[in-house]
């Protein structure tokens, strides 16, 4: 028996070449019966081939010894109902629609009780009205063609940015002082003048390299040929420099962006989007963190896009169901064993498995395959999110070393560059934002931080009317020179999250899922999509 155990973040993924003796009970009988059934089917089909072609004249061409017409062309099990898994189910169904001879039976397994993964909302208590606030993935941008198209086709109403109802100004905080300020109501030409005065030509140079990256990203939608290796995506997204092998800071410096701009604006953007600093993350992640042109969110929550994917996929959905074990059978199919919250167990055999969840955050045992050993260790950033309702129009001025509430910003991003380099006091949050006003004296606030945020430092206890805390393993560390997992871990087992060490967004999860679905179409259905879904109809 060969057992390799990899400690991947908060849980273990166990890889077994053969199951331990204690597992050879009911499961062994199930596996044996499936193998025997499949061997019989293969035998009957081979017999049918001989008989059909007239050997001995035993049957006519209109007779059938064994018919699989009632069976689907392909059975696919998807693990994870976030952006990747939900869109994969939808894309599979879209492919089946293009070929009337293809029938795909799709099963979607989700450990939690909802669809959407890291895109979920919290509904405020009824005394604050019928208001839902994004807890995880909050926005997408114009360049995110799959999400924009899905929202349009599903009839969802979009709002700009985070749904903020007012211009509240913005500041960048380094833990001791404000490095940059935009006063309330000052957006426009005055801000451009201030940016040039403070940072010279750096904003324009940064904009130029960001736009180059966006244009290369848009090229992914125009190339219908699926990619079998994540490194192929790296090549498509890079030009003369591999953007995953150089830090975001180094890449910007090499392109004429000043250190002050990198520390302040680029640092704040990468911190609020990925909880990391330009010095620590690769350039591709850094460019994506600053590509915030034309931000949108769905009124009522972005999760509605992913629920829309699932509703239109025809998939059989198994919520509150944990996949415990995948066993590779002798015929190459996969036996999936799952358990529900109440302890009931189930098993199903699939031609294809799509793993649409971070391997580091699952406890799936893979039997008779070396699949999991092919996934490098990937650590995820712990992110603390605090939502609160307050009757304070601003945080306490003293929290920022101020005395005048009128000078206290309502939206503050933090840069950690000075704390890491100059021993300045480390900021206690990554972002603190007044999202919306409920009544004349009530506001909703969202705070991102790397450790639990102490409200009493920024708000008087009497001013906090309600609060909610959530800890996420939000996104992978986007370190330069990432170890990349293969997209196909084994025959019929595809890993959608292999893309995450490059870019971790809702949109790129759908890009990765389309790519995996196109590979499945090629490998198992002998189909090659003529265009991506974003470009369809074609």
TrEMBL record:
The keyword Glycoprotein applies. InterPro entries: FAD/NAD-bd_sf (IPR036188), Prenylcys_lyase (IPR010795), Prenylcysteine_Oxase1 (IPR017046). SUPFAM superfamilies: FAD/NAD(P)-binding domain. It holds the Pfam family NAD_binding_8. The keyword Iron does not apply. Its cofactor is FAD. Coiled coil: none annotated. One of its GO terms (molecular function) is prenylcysteine oxidase activity. One of its GO terms (biological process) is prenylcysteine catabolic process. Gene3D superfamilies: FAD/NAD(P)-binding domain (3.50.50.60). Keywords: FAD, Flavoprotein, Glycoprotein, Oxidoreductase, Signal. Residues 185-524 form the Prenylcysteine lyase domain. Belongs to the prenylcysteine oxidase family. This is Prenylcysteine lyase domain-containing protein. It comes from Mixia osmundae (strain CBS 9802 / IAM 14324 / JCM 22182 / KY 12970). The lineage of its organism: Eukaryota, Fungi, Dikarya, Basidiomycota, Pucciniomycotina.
